[in-house]
Design a protein that fits this description.
By secondary structure, the protein is an alpha+beta fold. Helices cover about 20% and strands about 45% of the residues. The strands form 2 sheets. Strands 2, 4, 5, 6, 8 and 9 form a 6-stranded mixed sheet that branches. Strands 1-3-7 form a 3-stranded antiparallel sheet, with no helix packed on it. Strand 8 and strand 9 form a beta hairpin. The chain starts with a helix and ends with a strand.
């Protein structure tokens, strides 16, 4: 299948009718990567979701920031502006290590875990569509308001980004 697709792409690229649009696409991609590199690490989207995502952009957003006692707190995040490490064999690697911190409304730190999550992906392309899910089970946490802070460390580009989410654990 890959070989057939490559043959079709090669024939389209070598056909003069398609060369101008292909050149335009390649130039636009180059500009997009330049803008990406100037952006710096941040998040395009982050939200609470009802169940683990099925992939990039494929999630069911939770319509509330209130969680039942023991309910999983799942965050979906799409980082942007990250870097890639070039590997032998024409591969690119993106590498994230993420920390999590939870503070109660009174400022007490309930959880502070460095290296909570590690996400490494290798691809033949310097992809820009990447997402992560973070899942917490807060069994035994008392009812109340909390602030959840995730810190993303882009290990391929030595960048860091932080975002907060406020949520409530309901009384039983």
């Amino acid at each position: 299948m890959r070989l057939a697709l490559a043959a079709v792409m090669l024939s389209l690229a070598s056909n003069p009718v398609f060369s101008a649009p292909m050149d335009d696409l390649l130039k636009a991609e180059e500009k997009a990567y330049e803008a990406w590199g100037a952006l710096g690490l941040t998040e395009r989207t982050y939200t609470f979701i009802t169940e683990p995502s099925k992939g990039y952009g494929m999630y069911q957003e939770k319509q509330s920031t209130i969680f039942k006692p023991g309910e999983k707190v799942i965050t979906y995040v799409e980082p942007i502006g990250f870097s890639w490490k070039e590997l032998p064999g024409g591969l690119y690697e993106l590498n994230f290590v993420s920390d999590v911190k939870i503070k109660a409304e009174n400022g007490d730190v309930v959880l502070d875990q460095k290296g909570f999550s590690k996400n490494v992906l290798q691809s033949h392309n310097a992809i820009t569509e990447f997402s992560m899910d973070f899942t917490l089970t807060l069994t035994g946490a008392p009812a109340g308001k909390y602030t959840l802070t995730y810190t993303l460390h882009d290990m391929s580009g030595d960048q860091t980004s932080t975002f907060d989410q406020e949520f409530t654990i309901a009384a039983e």
